[in-house]
Write a structure and sequence with these properties.
By secondary structure, the protein is α/β, with parallel strands linked by helices. Among the domains are: 50 residues, Orthogonal Bundle (DNA polymerase, domain 1), CATH 1.10.150; 110 residues, OB fold (Dihydrolipoamide Acetyltransferase, E2P), CATH 2.40.50; 150 residues, Rossmann fold; 161 residues, P-loop containing nucleotide triphosphate hydrolases (Rossmann fold, 3-Layer(aba) Sandwich), CATH 3.40.50. Helices cover 37% and strands 19% of the residues. It has 24 helices and 21 strands. The strands form four sheets. Strands 11-12-10-13-14-9-15 form a seven-stranded parallel β-sheet, sandwiched between helices. A hairpin with a 4-residue loop joins strand 2 and strand 3. Helix 17 packs antiparallel against helix 19. It starts with 15 loop residues before the first helix and ends with a helix. This is ATP-dependent DNA helicase RecG. It holds the Pfam family DEAD. GO terms for molecular function: ATP binding; DNA binding; DNA helicase activity; hydrolase activity.
Length: 678
């Protein structure tokens, strides 16, 4: 007898091969199947008579098989299965390709249900490759009504997934409904059993929407509840109070070669106030490319050191860590502060006693403890795993104290997204750009104008400037048809710019090689650097005035904006040249999306455009992928997120230990062990 705990191997028609494929989707038990939710529905509610069918119509027809046979098409080298179906009103021809087994599945005289788009074939109506199933009863799950579609892996079909879910759906009432009754009643939400049935096998779109409302709220509520528990736990911990050193901070700001923007002043004050408290700060600082987050971080680190404590800054790549080290060392060169660099190649054991330690994941090795750690800063924090960030906060020799924590992100984050993902963090935004920063002139370049673009690049290089050339791939690929850095590097070096020094940078190079290439580029020993998206994050070289992007349509607007942010750091006018692939240059949607980059220069506007055109998964892929539990909820549904947060706060305020809600407490599990207490 099947239960929700039954192994997937115990299910009807699941052999070893199918079980292996299902496990690739994370489906190992009946419960996994029950909570494997559809992402869309095919609408086959239009049950039509064959005599009434029209070309282009999506329809469900039911009839009797009058003829079914296999043929081999020698021209196309495929098997063709043909059938004639009669429903009493007329007959229609049905064609399937490369499914010869259908002649064993179906026989003449069988009652069959078919769903698909009506085509015209040599003047007669036909169905080509429709979904089909034998009619045993009115309970049809593949061809009638609203039919669920699920994410698949190779060699699995929608019919297999639906067949298996049909086997477990009646066990939905054995799964405890942990959402408190008062919340369901207050918000008009379905019970769990009904929601699960309606999400998999809805009779109407309204039923599907009601199920999505309940299950989507559930996902967001769990996340918000966890965030509130984290917040309470954090508030019960203790951090070192870092007093605001007003005199020294004013001296530091006065001696800067530029004026801080109002946004920089505001967020710096928010951070300095936070770290002066005995409860640990937990703040996200989000700012557009080039908005000046680094100087705000330096002010926080300076105050930390002036309080005789340590600060660390963790970056996702060696290149970025080295750059932070160089920049911060230069900014603080007149202060008696010891700054060290720790990467996989540079592991100075004495560095752990420095005032400021900048590094990569080398900072979180098992044998490392910082004696006076009071502030931990993580740059591009979504690139680190939860456990990596957790380790960072535990690397204080004084285990009774938790460091203040500051996350940095150059991805423009709408408030709804920040609330959904970082519900337990306080948010600081820098939207203003530093004064005098010239917008980067951005142009779309067609193949006809490529030669002229190369002439312009040559002119800039001869004037002493430098250029990035970004390609989507490392190695050439016939399937993808996109440019690779290796091929483009050879082409530019031999055919286009033989008189310039051209460098190559990609993720497969050894760390030492990457560092040497970047250092040579910084020192202008390399004039043109051909690279992959490695340059997306944080690489700043003031002398670089050209960003050339090949296969530009393969990147999202937010990512293209990140690339563009790598130039325009100096006083010279900078340029970004977008080269779409030849096959996409005449695609109106491609051009419309890329033209947005030529019109707008702030990341928040571009993020919203990208969100509308490409969706959350494309825009915030790295962020969204960190939360695989979100199958239904949208990270951009502000109203539901806010409602989930309000309900979580109400519940935690009344019952912080969840004593009245044992099912809910069990569902949350040991959140203290699995969650980063930011």
């Amino acid at each position: 007898m099947l239960t929700l705990n039954s192994s997937i191997n115990e299910f009807n028609r699941v052999g070893t091969t199918t079980a292996t494929l299902l496990k690739k989707l994370g489906l190992a038990t009946g419960r996994d199947l029950l909570f494997y939710l559809p992402f869309r529905y095919d609408n086959f509610q239009n049950n039509a008579k064959i005599a009434d069918l029209q070309v282009g119509q999506n329809a469900n027809i039911r009839g009797e098989i009058e003829l079914i046979q296999n043929k081999k098409s020698w021209k196309r080298r495929v098997f063709v299965t043909e059938a004639l179906i009669n429903d009493g009103s007329d007959t229609i021809k049905v064609i399937w390709f490369n499914q010869p087994f259908l002649t064993k599945t179906y026989s003449v005289g069988d009652k069959i249900s078919l769903a698909g788009r009506v085509s015209e074939n040599y003047g007669a109506l036909s169905l080509v490759s429709p979904v089909s199933e034998k009619i045993y009863s009115e309970d049809l799950i593949h061809t009638s009504g609203l039919v669920s579609n699920y994410h698949l892996t190779a060699n699995l079909t929608q019919k297999q997934i639906r067949f298996l879910i049909k086997q477990v759906i009646n066990l939905a009432d054995t799964e405890p409904d942990w959402l408190p009754e008062n919340i369901k009643k207050r918000l008009g939400l379905l019970n769990l059993k009904t929601a699960l049935y309606q999400i998999h096998f809805p009779k109407t779109l309204e039923e599907a929407r009601e199920a999505e409302k309940r299950l989507g709220f559930t996902e967001l509520f769990l996340r918000q509840l966890q965030a509130q528990l984290i917040k309470r736990a954090r508030q019960s911990r203790q951090a070192t109070s870092l007093n605001f050193k007003e005199k020294e901070t004013k001296k530091f700001v006065t001696n800067l070669p530029f004026n801080l923007t109002d946004d920089q002043k505001k967020v710096a004050w928010e951070i300095l106030q936070d770290i002066s408290k005995v409860s640990p700060m937990s703040r996200l600082l989000a700012g557009d490319v080039g908005s000046g987050k680094t100087i705000v971080v330096v002010m926080a680190l300076l105050n930390t050191v002036l309080n005789k404590q340590q600060g660390i800054l963790m970056a996702p790549t060696t290149i970025l860590a080295q750059q932070h080290f160089n920049n911060i060392s230069q900014i603080l060169k007149d202060w008696p502060i010891k700054i060290s660099l720790m990467t996989s190649d540079k592991r100075d054991k004495e560095a752990i006693s420095s005032d400021i330690i900048i590094g990569t994941q080398a900072l979180i090795q098992k044998n490392i403890k910082f004696p006076r750690l009071a502030l931990a800063v993580v740059d591009e924090q979504h690139r680190f795993g939860v456990r990596d960030r957790q380790k960072l906060l535990n690397f204080n020799s004084n285990n009774s104290l938790t460091p203040h924590f500051l996350s940095l992100s150059a991805t423009p984050i709408p408030r709804s997204l920040a609330l959904a993902i970082y519900g337990d963090l306080d948010l600081s935004l820098i939207k203003q750009m530093p004064a005098g920063r010239q917008p980067v002139i951005t142009k779309i370049v067609t193949e006809k104008k490529r030669s002229a673009a190369y002439d312009f690049i040559r002119q800039e290089i001869k004037a002493g400037r430098q250029a990035f050339v970004v390609c989507p791939l490392i190695d050439e690929s016939d399937k993808l048809g996109a440019k690779s850095v290796k091929v483009e590097h050879t082409h530019l070096e031999k055919d286009i710019f033989p008189d310039f020094k051209i460098g190559l940078l990609h993720g497969k190079l050894p760390a030492a090689s990457k560092e040497k290439v970047m250092q040579d580029f910084v020192n202008n020993k390399i004039q043109i650097l051909v690279a992959t998206s490695l340059v997306e994050v944080g690489v700043d070289i003031a002398n670089t005035t050209l960003m050339v992007i090949e296969g530009a349509e393969r990147f999202g607007l937010a990512q293209l904006h990140q690339f563009r942010g790598r130039v325009g750091r100096g006083t010279q006018q900078s340029y970004c040249l977008l080269f779409p692939s030849q096959e996409k240059i005449n695609n109106p949607k491609t051009l419309e999306r890329l033209e947005a980059l030529t019109k707008y220069h702030d990341g928040f506007t571009l993020a919203n455009i990208d969100l509308k055109q490409r969706g959350a998964g494309e825009l915030y892929g790295a962020v969204q992928s960190g939360f695989p539990e979100l199958q239904i909820a949208s990270l951009f549904d502000y109203a539901t997120i806010k409602k989930a947060q309000e309900e979580a706060i109400k519940l935690i305020t009344k019952d912080p230990d969840l004593k009245k809600y044992p099912l809910l407490k069990n569902k949350l599990g040991k959140w203290e062990d699995d969650t980063h207490l930011e």
